[in-house]
Amino acid sequence: MSESEKYTLETLHFYLYSISTPIVCCIGFLGNILNIVVFTKKKKSTGGMDDMENCSTVVLLALAASDMLFCLTVFPVVFQDPRKKSYQHTDFMLFYNLYSNTIISVFILSSTLLTVLVAVMRFLAICHPFRARRVITVKRSVLAIGILFLFSVAFNLPSLWQRKTIHCMHNYVKIINNDSADDSFMYIQKILWAIVGNFIPLLILFFCNIHLIRAIRSSEHLQQAHHCSEPTRSSSHRRINIAMIAIITCFFILVAPSEFTKFIALLGNNNRFVFFLVSYVTNTLQCVNFSINFVLYYIIIAPFRKILRDIMCTFPSSRGRKKGPPQLLVEVSTKERHHLFLLYSLKEIRHLK
């Protein structure tokens, strides 16, 4: 690469990786914590939810946790210096540069597979509702979440041996590519990642998205034809479907380009400048995808907004509430006052007024 190209990449790396990405990760970390809090509170009050909605909430809760861990893992990139080649043994960035790609890939794959899982669940709930109610349960949803996460960890374990450290002078070590690793095995692993982690999920999400859009449009046509309002439970499912359409659309726009860039580089793109230029931009967009779900939920799902407002209103009032004798917060009728007069003293009755 020429000096001008190196300068362009360094400038882009600074603005995207040292400024934009940490800000996006902080917003995503806090947003996903709020997602976890709201969905946990919603799950505890399951009186207004049926089994299908409860299962979807469980998977969305796991998706928020995976996205939160992704943002937490990507954030140290702000301390990364691409020009630094050697580290001390106790330097945190040594271990981060050595293992971060594997850990980040685990959460990328787990979030992708969880998105596919909730999309398939919504598809079954719409197109095969009776079969879905027999097959989809909370226990099976939790089991599927555990299996997908373990699969994500196992699938990315081989990448731990891609790089290794060598000793330099004055107790410094340098990270290099591991020549002892089987190149053909690592190449096959990357091809499988492109298929399992990108192409197959994209096809499934595209298929499910089409059916979700059709279901929403047909529901609107039925309401217009019969001039009736939508039932509360159907409205709840409709909001979840709209949220899933938005999540899938963002996945296509923000995540797919980054994975396609990696796949093209794997096929042997020799233009390093173009590859790094595109990968810096697409990786930043990928971080935006893992941080934006909170905004989508807040805009689309009305109960999400209500629970969040209740939490925000309860928190400061609970902190500012002074300790004192318990107060009655309900109005007391005249007859009840008469009975209270027989039970309490005149002084206590005056406190009720």
What does this structure look like?
- By secondary structure, the protein is mainly α.
- It has a single domain, classed as Rhopdopsin 7-helix transmembrane proteins, CATH 1.20.1070.10.
- Helix content is 76%, strand content 4%.
- It has twelve helices and three strands.
- The chain has a three-stranded antiparallel beta sheet, with helices on one face.
- β2 and β3 (172-177) form a beta hairpin.
- The radius of gyration is 27 Å and the shape is elongated.
- It starts with a helix and ends with a helix.
- The model is unreliable at 324-335 and 337-353 (pLDDT under 50).
Q: Which homologous superfamily in CATH is the superfamily?
A: Rhodopsin 7-helix transmembrane proteins
Regions with pLDDT < 50 over 5+ consecutive residues? 324-335, 337-353
Tell me the major beta sheet.
Answer: 3 strands, antiparallel
Distance between the termini: 83 Å
Element order: H for helix, E for strand:
HHEHHHEEHHHHHHH
Annotated CATH topology: Rhopdopsin 7-helix transmembrane proteins
- Can you tell me the number of structural domains? 1
Helical content stands at over 70%
Count of strand segments: 3
Mean pLDDT: 79
**Count of helical regions:** 12
Overall geometric form: elongated
Order of strands across the biggest sheet? 1-3-2
Going by helix content, strand content and strand pairing, the class is mainly alpha
- The appropriate CATH architecture is Up-down Bundle
Rg from Cα: 27 Å
**What is the class in the CATH system?**
Mainly Alpha
Give the amount of beta strand, in percent. under 5%
